[in-house]
Design goal:
189 residues, mainly alpha, two-stranded antiparallel sheet
């Protein structure tokens, strides 16, 4: 296991030892460390924060952690990137049920879900804002799709984006059986 993985495992263990609010508490802690209000931490801020938690890194290790977890290439680590890295890996059962839900939505089978795919599976006509005339059915389906997209809302949800969305939810569900039952019911699998 390399240094970055080791740091992540130690931090996960520390969150678990703090109970269910561990990651939420960590989120508050890192917001406090963001002294310039940029909503991101550079390697130095990250290093100081981890040291306060008892995880001492040298400058090279802190740089490596930032590089590994920096998904948007900004050179800094935003809170979402950091928390995403902390989520424990999902089991095969959870990954499989997420893939089944995605496949149900991906009517065209091209690996991305679009509003057109959704039309083949769901109707937005019953949405309260569609019924009131505030939104069109197209808008309701698009906003539903936006729920699963990362920061780049391009109208196409990939399996990776769908899994990332459910990875966050998965971390709060204790057992595979509960998660699979929830997904099966929600997506009528």
């Amino acid at each position: 296991m390399d240094t970055v993985d080791s740091v992540m495992e130690r931090l996960r263990a520390q969150c678990l030892s703090r109970g269910a609010s561990g990651i939420q508490g960590l989120a508050r802690f890192f917001r406090r460390l963001d002294r310039d209000g940029s909503r991101s931490l550079d390697a130095g801020e990250l290093r100081r924060g981890l040291a306060e938690l008892g995880l001492v890194l040298d400058a090279a290790e802190a740089d490596a952690v930032c590089r590994r977890w920096d998904r948007d290439g900004s050179g800094t680590l935003d809170l979402e990137e950091f928390l995403r890295a902390l989520r424990p890996p999902m089991s095969q059962a959870r990954t499989a049920v997420i893939a089944a839900a995605f496949a149900k939505l991906d009517r065209s089978g091209d690996g991305v879900v679009t509003v057109e795919d959704l039309r083949g599976v769901y109707s937005g006509r019953a949405h309260p804002k569609v019924r009131s005339g505030e939104w069109t059915e197209e808008e309701a389906l698009r906003r539903f799709l936006d729920t699963f997209e990362a920061s780049d809302k391009d109208g196409q949800v990939t399996l990776a984006e769908f899994q990332d969305y459910y990875s966050s939810l998965s971390a709060s569900v204790d057992t595979d059986e509960e998660f699979v039952a929830m997904m099966t019911s929600a997506w009528r699998l």
